[in-house]
Amino acid sequence: WSLHPAGESLPRDRFVLRWAGPEGARYDVRVATEDLRVLARTFDLGAAAYHVPEDALSGLPAGALIVWQVKAVLPNGERVSSRAFVSRLE
Protein backbone atom coordinates (compact mmCIF):
# COMPACT_ATOMS: atom_id res chain seq x y z
CA TRP A 1 0.00 0.00 0.00
CA SER A 2 2.75 2.47 0.91
CA LEU A 3 3.87 4.77 -1.88
CA HIS A 4 7.21 5.36 -0.09
CA PRO A 5 10.28 3.15 -0.58
CA ALA A 6 11.13 1.25 2.64
CA GLY A 7 13.09 3.44 5.04
CA GLU A 8 12.65 6.61 2.95
CA SER A 9 13.55 9.79 4.86
CA LEU A 10 10.83 12.42 5.20
CA PRO A 11 11.33 15.96 6.52
CA ARG A 12 9.97 16.69 10.00
CA ASP A 13 7.85 19.64 8.78
CA ARG A 14 6.45 17.75 5.77
CA PHE A 15 6.15 14.21 7.13
CA VAL A 16 3.33 13.18 4.81
CA LEU A 17 2.50 9.49 4.56
CA ARG A 18 0.94 8.35 1.28
CA TRP A 19 -0.52 5.03 0.24
CA ALA A 20 -2.56 3.44 -2.53
CA GLY A 21 -6.12 2.47 -1.71
CA PRO A 22 -9.41 1.72 -3.40
CA GLU A 23 -11.74 4.50 -4.51
CA GLY A 24 -14.27 5.44 -1.86
CA ALA A 25 -12.39 3.89 1.08
CA ARG A 26 -12.02 5.64 4.45
CA TYR A 27 -8.78 5.29 6.41
CA ASP A 28 -7.53 5.11 9.98
CA VAL A 29 -3.78 5.64 10.46
CA ARG A 30 -1.56 4.86 13.44
CA VAL A 31 1.96 6.32 13.63
CA ALA A 32 4.46 5.08 16.22
CA THR A 33 8.10 4.97 17.22
CA GLU A 34 10.27 1.95 16.56
CA ASP A 35 9.34 0.62 20.04
CA LEU A 36 5.64 1.14 19.15
CA ARG A 37 4.97 4.23 21.30
CA VAL A 38 2.04 5.91 19.54
CA LEU A 39 2.91 9.36 18.19
CA ALA A 40 -0.27 10.17 16.29
CA ARG A 41 -3.55 8.63 15.20
CA THR A 42 -6.23 9.78 12.85
CA PHE A 43 -9.56 8.30 11.88
CA ASP A 44 -11.97 8.34 8.96
CA LEU A 45 -9.70 10.03 6.40
CA GLY A 46 -11.19 10.34 2.94
CA ALA A 47 -7.82 10.73 1.24
CA ALA A 48 -4.94 8.26 1.00
CA ALA A 49 -2.47 10.60 2.73
CA TYR A 50 -1.79 11.82 6.25
CA HIS A 51 0.40 14.75 7.33
CA VAL A 52 1.84 13.79 10.71
CA PRO A 53 1.79 16.90 12.91
CA GLU A 54 5.28 18.29 13.45
CA ASP A 55 4.73 18.50 17.21
CA ALA A 56 4.09 14.72 17.31
CA LEU A 57 7.65 14.26 16.02
CA SER A 58 9.29 16.99 18.10
CA GLY A 59 10.93 14.75 20.70
CA LEU A 60 12.54 12.45 18.16
CA PRO A 61 16.08 12.75 16.81
CA ALA A 62 16.89 12.96 13.12
CA GLY A 63 17.21 9.43 11.75
CA ALA A 64 14.50 7.99 14.03
CA LEU A 65 12.45 5.20 12.48
CA ILE A 66 8.72 5.83 12.28
CA VAL A 67 6.38 2.83 12.01
CA TRP A 68 2.93 3.33 10.54
CA GLN A 69 -0.09 1.27 9.58
CA VAL A 70 -3.26 1.98 7.63
CA LYS A 71 -6.65 0.39 8.20
CA ALA A 72 -9.18 0.85 5.42
CA VAL A 73 -12.94 0.60 5.48
CA LEU A 74 -14.00 -0.25 1.95
CA PRO A 75 -17.22 1.08 0.41
CA ASN A 76 -18.88 -2.32 1.00
CA GLY A 77 -18.03 -2.11 4.74
CA GLU A 78 -15.17 -4.62 4.62
CA ARG A 79 -12.20 -3.72 6.84
CA VAL A 80 -8.64 -4.31 5.64
CA SER A 81 -5.35 -3.63 7.47
CA SER A 82 -2.02 -2.98 5.83
CA ARG A 83 1.23 -4.42 7.06
CA ALA A 84 3.43 -2.03 9.04
CA PHE A 85 5.57 0.40 7.03
CA VAL A 86 8.75 2.15 8.12
CA SER A 87 9.88 5.66 7.23
CA ARG A 88 12.84 7.60 8.61
CA LEU A 89 12.68 11.07 10.13
CA GLU A 90 15.00 13.43 8.24
Mean pLDDT: 96
Q: How helix-rich are the residues, as a percent range?
A: under 10%
Largest sheet: 6 strands, mixed
Structural class: mainly beta
Shape: elongated
Order of helices and strands: EEEEEHEEE
Based on CA atoms alone, the radius of gyration comes out at 13 Å
Beta-strand content estimate: over 45%
Count of strand segments: 8
Q: Tell me the distance between the termini.
A: 22 Å
Quaternary status: single chain
Uncertain segments: none
Written overview of the protein:
- It is a single chain.
- With 90 residues, the chain is mostly beta strands.
- The chain has one helix at 54-57; strands at residues 9-10, 16-18, 26-33, 38-45, 49-51, 65-73, 79-81, 85-89.
- Strands 1, 3, 4, 6, 7 and 8 form a six-stranded mixed beta sheet that branches. The chain has a two-stranded antiparallel ribbon with strand order 2-5.
- β3 and β4 (38-45) form a beta hairpin.
- The protein starts with 8 loop residues before the first strand and ends with a strand.
